[in-house]
Structures are given as C-alpha cells and as structure tokens.
Amino acid sequence: MHERERDLVAQFMQRQIGRRELFRRMGQMGVGAAAASYLLNTASTQVLAADFDWQAHKGKTVTLLLNKHPYTDAMIANLDNFKTLTGMDVKYDVFPEDVYFDKVTAALSSQGTQYDAFMTGAYQTWQYGPAGWLVDMNQFISDPAYTAPNYNWEDMLPNLRASTAWSGVPGEALGGEGAKQWAVPWGFELNNLAYNKPLFDKLGLGVPKNLPELIETAAKITKDAGGPYGIGVRGSRSWASIHPGFLSAYSNYGQKDFSLADGKLSAAMNTPESKAFHDLWVKMIQDSGPKNWATYTWYQVGTDLGAGASGMIYDADILGYFMNGGDNKEAGHLAYAAIAPNPEATAPTPNVWIWSLGMNAFGQQQDAAWLFVQWASGTEHGLFGARKMDFVNPVRQSVWDDQEFKDRIAAKYPGYIEQYTTSAPGSKIYFTPQPLFFNLTTEWAASLQKMVAKEVPVSEGLDQLAESVNRQLKQAGLG
User: Fold this and answer.
1) How many domains would you assign to the chain?
2) Cα(117)–Cα(121) distance, rounded to whole angstroms?
3) CA pair distance 9, 22, nearest whole angstrom
4) Secondary structure of the chain: what % helix, strand, coil (to 5)?
5) Rounded to 10 degrees, what is the CA torsion of 60, 61, 62, 67?
6) Residues 31 and 80 in one domain
7) Start-to-end C-alpha separation, the chain
8) What is the pLDDT of residue 51?
9) Do 194 and 343 belong together in one domain?
10) Which residues contact 478 (CB under 8 A, 6 or more apart)?
11) 114 plus 179 within the same structural domain
12) What is the pLDDT of residue 29?
C-alpha cells in the first residue's frame, strides 16, 4: 500500500471520512473498487489485531462442518482475512441441508473430534446442549483473555442472543436465568410476505395487512391471475413446515404450543382459539395454495415465487430476497411487507430461524475454535458479508445501521428494510424449548396435512394431536 493510500485508509478508520468519500478519493488515485475493498479489509484486520492477541494459536487448523448456504459462501470468501489475522488455517466440509443435520448429529453423538465448530439452528441446541455435546460459550464471551474488547456482545440483537441460550430445563424461557449460550447467532431470518409487485399492480391488489386480508388476496390471485396460485407456504411432513409463516401467524393470535404448570408441559394446540386459527390457515391453503402443498419445503416455496408460479409467499424474508436475483424469471419484480396476521394485534411477531455457530464439546482445540467463532460472528465480517455478499439478515445492530448496507438493500429490494424494522422488535423464537421438539412439531405438520386433505375435521384433528402429544410428554417424564 502506497503512503497516500495508507493515509486515506487511516482517515477512514479514524472516522474522519466516510466510506463513500474513501472510495471516491481512491478512484481519483486510480485505485478501483475491488482494490480499495481489499485495502480496507486489510486495514480492518490490522486494527482488530492491535488490541488483542489474535495470533495466540498461530499454526493451528480449525475444521468446520457447514451447511450449503449463502452465509457459508460469504464466510468462505472472507477466510483469507481470518488466516491473516490469526495465522491459522481453516478446513471445512459443506453438505446440502437435506443431509446436513444428520451429519452434525452423527458427528456429535459419536463424540467425534473431527470438527471443532459447525453451523446449527437454535432448535437443534435443545437436543445437543443438554446431551453435553456443545460448549457453553458464556465462558469465552465474558472473559477478556479469550474475547477481543471490540467484539461487543451487546451489539448482537438481544432477542437472538436470548433465543440461542437455554437452561436445559423443559419449558423454561429462552435466555432466562441459568441459560447456557449453546450457540452464537450468525445470521437469521424472520417470516413476512414477499410478493410479485407487477402482478399485484396488474390486478389492482393492495398488500394484505392481516390473515383475513391475506386469505382474500390469495383467493383473488388464484381466481384472476391466469395461472399463478395465491400463496406459498410450506407443507411437507416436517418440523420445518411449522416454524416459518405458520407459527409466526399462530403466535400473533396469542396462541402457544404448550402450557406449563407445576413444571409439567401439556399440549395447547386444541384450545378454541387455536382451532379458529387453524380453520383460517387450512382454508387459505385449500383455496389458494399449490396443488402439491404437502410436498412443499423451503425450496419449492421459493422456486415458485421466483418462477412466477405463485403471487406471494409467507415465509422467510431472506427466501424472498434470494428469489429476487440470479436467473429467476421474476428477479427484480419482488417486494416485501410485514404482516400482523391477527387483525387485533398491534405489531408483527415473527418466529425466527437463527443460523448459529456452535462448538464441539469433544473438540481438542476449543480456544482456537472460539477465535474462529468470534471472528465469523464479529462486526467486521458482518459488514463484509452485508456489503459485498448475500449475508442477510445480519445479527448485529451496527451492521443494520450501516448506510452502505441499507442503501444496497433499498435499491433492489423494495420494502425489505421496512418489513425488518417493523418486525424486529417482536421477532424471536416462540416455541417452548423442550427435547421432543422435532418429533412433536413433525406430528403437528402431519396433522395439518390431514386437515388440508379433508381426511379429518380441524377440531377433531387438533384434539387427536393434543392427545398424542400429551401421551408422549408423559412417557418422556415431561407431562
């Protein structure tokens, strides 16, 4: 780096000039945007290294188990900065999601030492943590000997910090007293509407603000759009069909999955209010969902929106984000909006999925692994991913506040920032943490399939579900 360029970067790092002014002046010096970004990343790495011994484990190699995802792509693209910062090497295995969680469970349950750190969802930690397979990262976060002073744990969105921490006691609140930080938030998604704006304009449709309006709008699309169906939501026999739009809407109506009394759990899916909600949800799918709804996962919901086969989806905001780019037929045509499904609700309450980073309790180099987790969940990497890659949604408030990131999103994803800002205060995990999560939510999804297929009436189906759930809770000593 020449002296003039070095001085300019130093001015930026000292907040004497902004990022745009930095790049403008670099351009005047004949330095292109890519080269300027490299110089800035290098300078940021040097700043990180100035107040903490990032080289404490120089020469070591950390091995990661990763899910194939744009968040993973952003991390891999920035690994050279981690290697420069720490003097460490990184190896990784990447698997598609349909086999990924099986790989993690097998690696941890066998007490294997191959992987030091890995991607995980928060729900998975309800199994992994109490089983003794995860490191409680509180011991690192709170210790300045292990954690750089500018890591700023409080910059992490508070609902995400809480949603990745749990005491391990079934029914106890996430992030409550005695909670262990089983994972560190890395990237997340909340659930709102993504819709085909040209189609809405053509049909003269307004954006639905609640579930009754959503049902009406979806029906109009199905009837009048000349091909596309109204609303895409997940329907496969999987826990993953319950946690996105369904639970976000269910929670907005004030409903819960379980009741807790005297330390015992019981099913809450068959209350009169829950049955009324299920009636609405089932009708929406029957009238305006895809023909093969019972096979629909994240991929089918997103692909249909991107291909113009559906008018809108109620699913992860980042799913709509991804469908607005690439070679999708409707790229550039999608817009985004928050929804509070209950007409009497004052704000949205989206359930969240949090891609997080966990550490293997059987790993032989946990201190080195923490350096990686700390870097990957830190502000500098978050800014790199948000500005240059598809690392949405960031888990840090400082990244959401970054003007370059906001300008980039606003330019191509109309309504995206607004749906997030509206929804963020009420977004968290709304499930009750308990070790039977996957079995019971999968059974819930199977019950929904029967209701939509008219194999069982909604009220009867929910009574049967609650009876089965309560039986399993008692057998496990939880009810």
Assistant:
1) 3
2) 13
3) 7
4) 50, 15, 35
5) 160
6) no
7) 65
8) 76
9) yes
10) 170, 171, 264, 265, 434, 435, 436
11) yes
12) 67
346 and 362 inside one domain: no
Neighbours of 4 (CB within 10 A): 12
E strand or H helix at 65: strand 61-67
266-302 pLDDT, tens per residue?
A: 999 999 999 999 999 999 999 999 999 999 999 999 9
Residues 61 and 173 grouped into a single domain: yes
10/106 same-domain check: no
Domain CATH for 448: 3.40.190.10
Phi then psi dihedrals of residue 176, to 5 deg:
-80, -170
Question: Could you list the residue range(s) of the whole structural domain that residue 321 is in?
Answer: 190-351+429-475
Closest CA to 355 of 373, 341, 338, 369: 373
Residues 365 and 280 in one domain: no
Q: Which residues pair with 89 in a beta bridge?
A: 61
In 3D space, the residue among 10, 44, 39, 74 whose CA is nearest the CA of residue 387 turns out to be: 74
DSSP-assigned letter for residue 18: -
| 388 and 268 belong to one structural domain | no
- How confident is the model over 94-121, as pLDDT tens digits? 999 989 999 999 999 999 999 999 999 9
C-alpha distances out from residue 236 to 250, 254, 281, Å: 18, 25, 15
User: What are the structure tokens assigned to 284, written together?
Assistant: 């929406």
Q: Say how far apart CA 296 and CA 238 lie, in whole Å.
A: 10
Tens-place pLDDT, residues 47-94: 555 579 999 999 999 999 999 999 999 999 999 999 999 999 999 999
CB 332 within 8 A of CB 411: no
